Amino acid sequence: MTETTPYDADRARFTRQALARLVLCDDAVSVADGAAALVATENDPDTGPGGRVSQAFQLIELAERALAAAVIYERERGSSWAEIAQYMGLDAAEAEARFIPSLEGWNRAFDVPYRLDETGRKRIPQLPTAAYDPACACEHLDRWARLQRIGTEAVSSGLVMAAQEKEPSSTTP
After folding, report:
1. What is the largest distance, in Å, between two alpha-carbon atoms of the chain?
2. SS3 for 115?
3. In this structure, how many other beta carbons lie within 10 angstroms of the beta carbon of residue 11?
4. How far apart are the first and last CA of the chain?
5. What is the C-alpha separation between 138 and 53, in angstroms, rounded?
6. Residue ranges covered by each domain of the chain
7. For 116, which DSSP code?
8. Mean pLDDT of all residues in the chain?
């Protein structure tokens, strides 16, 4: 599957480190929004028995996904397994064993960025959405950060971008 997609050129402007950071940002927004949903009490009467537990449990699942994204980001920026493990109370081998499936999936998605659905006609991205369409992710995440009063370009301004190819200069006699 070597056909191009409309997002390939946008994605090429970003380093893998930047793409991993966008995925982490996107997952962090999901965690923040999930936690915020637990704050309001006005809809408690409309929530069935166990409903808030369900929301809190989903928050744990979102946090686990964000943790995996953080590990992928740290590996992309050159952190060792020992450096990552120290913050989780694990040794390097335990951290690697826990997160290597996520890292392998991330790496594989760059080789095969999409798969065909069961009909063979629709492409399904294998990269997380924020990495597959990073231009849209930057716009969305910067907007979210503005609304949260974190900063104007709090996400996109700090990304490590790929080196741009220089256009050959024309020499005019």
Report:
1. 81
2. strand
3. 20
4. 46
5. 32
6. 8-40+50-158
7. E
8. 88
